[in-house]
Write a structure and sequence with these properties.
Length: about 250
């Protein structure tokens, strides 16, 4: 097991895509540091299941991010997955929501990355994986902050990859389409209100309409891709944006 004994910080890993990535890495022998929100009892259960460490840093606060990175120590794998969403027309988009989305989806990844890189460079090996989105490659209405943050994280990933190209550290992003996670489920009511649609219409005519396969991406599929990007065979894969979107961005 090539990854056995490596350490990974996965942000936003108490549910959804992040949890699937954490589980997939754990199965490969990776020591996991969880971070995210959720019921304390459920988090305790996950810590036991994954034999993991948990740090509850609020990623909206750069000082808490710095403290977390110092307290958990060096990591070999960094997965910047934490994210949030809000759906509204630009003219009605709450500025505080814009600021929060940019802070969590983009700025937090900058801070975790800048603290993780020195130890990775010293070790001569590291993997940085950023969860982007199909919205890093295309756009949808009423999601201005999310679209902006995901386009930006893709560009940030390319920059890191170029800076680290000769260090043994790779940087890639994964761009899922619609994955059935709490984030997606949570945006359905906002989309219903913004577009005047029923729940079924949002699922069938808005979400799955984007994906030619007419299937939601499974979190485990994203986890498997993350594992591949960490493996020895992916040592020359860097600066790439990996779509896993049911063909959405092929159109």
């Amino acid at each position: 097991m090539f990854l056995k004994g490596k350490r990974a910080l996965v942000t936003g890993s108490t549910s959804g895509i992040g949890l699937a990535i954490a589980r997939a890495l754990h199965e490969e022998g990776v020591e996991i540091v969880l971070n995210g929100l959720g019921n304390p009892a459920e988090i305790t259960k996950l810590v036991g299941e994954l034999e993991a460490q948990f740090h509850g840093a609020n990623l909206l606060d750069p000082q808490e991010i710095e403290a977390m990175m110092r307290e958990i120590g060096p990591v070999d794998i960094l997965v910047n997955n934490a994210g949030m969403q809000h759906v509204a027309p630009v003219e009605d988009f709450p500025p505080e929501k814009w600021d929060a989305i940019i802070a969590l989806n983009l700025t937090a990844a900058f801070h975790t990355t800048r603290f993780a890189i020195p130890a990775m460079k010293k070790a001569g090996w590291g993997r940085i994986i950023n969860t982007a989105s199909a919205h890093s490659l295309t756009a949808s209405p009423f999601k201005s902050a999310y679209n902006a943050s995901k386009h930006a994280i893709a560009g940030f990933t390319k920059t890191i990859a170029l800076e680290l190209a000769q260090t043994g550290v790779t940087a890639n992003c994964i761009s899922p389409g619609y994955v059935w996670t709490p984030l997606i489920e949570g945006q359905i009511p906002d989309t219903m209100a913004a577009r005047g649609l029923t729940r079924e219409q949002v699922i069938n005519d808005v979400l799955l309409a984007k994906q030619p396969t007419k299937k939601f991406v499974q979190p485990e599929e994203v986890g498997a891709l993350a594992v591949f990007l960490c493996r020895k065979e992916a040592g020359n894969v860097t600066g790439a944006n990996w779509s896993i979107d049911g063909g959405w961005t092929a159109e």
